[in-house]
Amino acid sequence: MVNLSLDAGINIFDTANVYSFGESEIMLGKALGKKRKDVLIATKVYSPFDKSANSLGTSRLAIMREVEASLKRMGTDYIDLYQLHSWDVTTPIEETLEALDDLIRQGKVRYIGLSNFNAWQIAKADGISARLNLEKFCSVQAYYSLVGRELEREIIPASMDLGLGTLIWSPLAGGFLSGKFTRESESDGRRKSFDFPPVNKEVGFNIVDKLKEIADSKDASVTQIALSWLLHKEGVTSVIIGARKKEQLVDNLGSVEIELTDEEMKQLDEVSAIAPEYPNWMPPFQRGQDLFSRFSDS
Question: For this structure, is 78 an active site residue?
Answer without folding.
Answer: no
